[in-house]
Design brief:
Layout lengths: L3 H10 L4 H11 L4 H8 L18 H12 L6 E2 L12 H8 L2 H4 L11 H18 L3 E2 L6 H15 L6 E5 L4 H11 L5 E5 L13 E6 L10 H9 L3 E7 L16 E5 L15 E5 L10 E7 L5 E8 L19 H39 L3 E2 L7 E5 L4 H10 L2 E2 L1 E4 L2 E5 L6 H10 L39 H12 L8
Parallel strand pairs: 1-13, 3-4, 3-5, 5-6, 6-7
Antiparallel strand pairs: 2-8, 7-8, 9-10, 11-12, 12-15, 14-15
Length: about 500
């Protein structure tokens, strides 16, 4: 039996009223919903017994129970990294996008005429990705970095003119990315070879593609140019999974010779969200656009001759013939892509540069104190991740960190890794140094020197030069811009 509060929730949140339901059933020729379900759901998959989930709760009761459960969570300080980082979402973006039904209830912009605001912001996202990767073209987001890497494998497979079935994946890639690639490769009949970048030479036949990480999952920044060249000599496409914030300081995938660049835009203002969802990016050469997964926002003109945005390319099987579809797993994360684009607009090129330098300098200061305390580090070339050779102290330090409610990455029995992000500061870095039993601490604000970044890979090309990324850096300017875009759309708030 439903209580009044439960009935009230159903009345307020579930659209069809009883009379609407009956009208539908009459039109379809059924007396009840049960009869409709019995006649539409195959007998062999129809659940006959009621779900043992107890009585329904009212909205108030459900929220109260969920809050009680959430209070059991223990909030740790996180230094794990591996593609997931703490980030500040500017309040103007939180209030006016994430918490605004004008943005979060908008459906996929199939009808361009009522989605001009969203399409403009997604175009900004594409331009942001093009700027940071140096590639010719980018789509309007994918699900996550692992999915984007798998889609890069799919694109390479479609373009492959040889009878090759081999995909090379560097063991420098994030483990979750490797797992997704292996899973997606199996039904495609592809063989995945995982190894060191130097192992490319050992493959005797042509390959479909080679997937590298930049910087590597252990933070090491290596010049991938030679490996990219080797991949191409074996007639494969070179795929570079990269860190978007690191690309503010490092050479672009295009400058390094990559055919495809993929990654995650999470650290551009998107909360970690217990691992997702996030908005991945996918960028490639113009010549490959017809084989790209997902969708591309384009610029056209309406019948009055005014600028108009549209979905220029859609390659899912729901849009075109199944045999021509590039993917049906190319889920876009439109809202989060919009958030990351808004983050870049709000901060602009100078703001993004400052954030990237501050993160990297904090990591450099930490590494300096670690080395002065007698530890050896895995690599002297890194952006935000420092791997420490802790040897027989590994377990003790790792346990000490957990006792201090700090999450760090255990690489193996002899190495620990820590990653810095926008939310970390000198206080947190010093807390970490104490966990490693270091005698020294960081006393001053990070300096401008970044010896941890290899000079031959430092970025010299500019990014975010378009007007939109250089116009809305105050709260009021950004608010007005977002409002103008919102007013061009139709969502559930109107």
């Amino acid at each position: 039996m439903l209580h009044n509060s439960q009935k009230d929730f159903i009345r307020r949140h579930i659209g069809p009223k009883k009379k609407d339901e009956q009208k539908m059933l009459t039109q379809l020729g059924y007396k009840s919903l049960s009869e409709l379900i019995d006649n539409t759901v195959p007998e062999k998959i129809l659940l006959k017994d009621a779900l043992s989930i107890g009585e329904p709760n009212s909205e108030y009761e459900a929220l109260r129970k969920l809050k009680a459960i959430s209070k059991k969570n223990q909030i740790y300080s996180n230094f794990i990294g591996m593609g997931y980082y703490g980030t500040y979402t500017p309040n103007v973006i939180v209030r006016n996008i994430l918490e605004n039904p004008g943005w979060y209830t908008s459906y996929t912009p199939y009808q361009a005429e009522v989605a001009q605001g969203r399409l403009e912001m997604l175009l900004n996202f594409q331009q942001m990705i093009i700027d940071f990767t140096g590639m010719d073209i980018a789509n309007a987001s994918l699900l996550d970095e692992g999915t984007a890497a798998a889609e890069a494998m799919g694109l390479s497979h479609r373009l492959n003119k040889k009878d090759s079935k081999i995909v090379f994946v560097s063991n420098d890639c994030h483990p979750q990315t490797i797992d997704v690639i292996k899973t997606r490769a199996e039904p495609m009949g592809l063989k995945v070879i995982i190894g060191k970048d130097t192992d490319i030479d050992k493959i005797s036949e042509d390959i479909i593609c080679g997937i590298l990480q930049y910087p590597g999952t252990l933070g090491d920044i290596k010049d991938p140019s030679e490996s990219i060249s080797k991949i191409k000599k074996k007639n494969g496409k070179a795929v570079l999974a990269c860190d978007l914030l690191a690309l503010a300081k490092l050479k672009t995938p295009a400058e390094l010779g990559a055919d495809i660049a993929v990654g995650n835009s999470q650290r551009f203002g998107i909360p970690m969200g217990y691992g997702g969802p996030h908005a991945a990016f996918f960028a490639t050469k113009d010549e490959f656009k017809r084989s790209m997964p997902g969708r591309i926002i384009g610029v056209s003109v309406d019948r009055h001759g005014n600028k108009a945005y549209r979905l220029a390319l859609q390659t899912r099987e729901q849009h075109i013939r199944r045999d021509k579809a590039t993917s049906n797993i190319c889920t876009a994360q439109a809202l989060l892509a919009i958030v990351s684009a808004a983050y870049a607009i709000y901060h602009g090129p100078n703001g993004i540069k400052k954030i990237s330098e501050r993160v990297s300098q904090l990591a450099n200061n930490f590494a300096d104190k670690i080395k002065k305390s007698g530890y050896e580090i895995y690599s002297n070339n890194f952006f935000d991740t420092v791997v420490i050779k802790t040897k027989d102290k590994t377990e003790k330090i790792f346990k000490n960190a957990l006792d201090q409610k700090v999450n760090i990455r255990k690489v193996n029995s002899e190495m620990l890794a820590v990653s810095f992000d926008e939310k970390k500061n000198v206080y947190r870095a010093n807390q970490l140094l104490k966990i490693f039993n270091c005698a020294e601490s960081i006393k001053d604000n990070p300096t401008e020197s970044l010896p941890n970044l290899p000079k031959n890979l430092l970025r010299t090309s500019k990014y975010l030069e378009h007007t939109v990324f250089n116009s809305y850096h105050s709260e009021t300017e950004m608010l007005r811009y977002l409002k103008r875009l919102e007013d061009k759309d139709i969502a559930l708030n109107r």
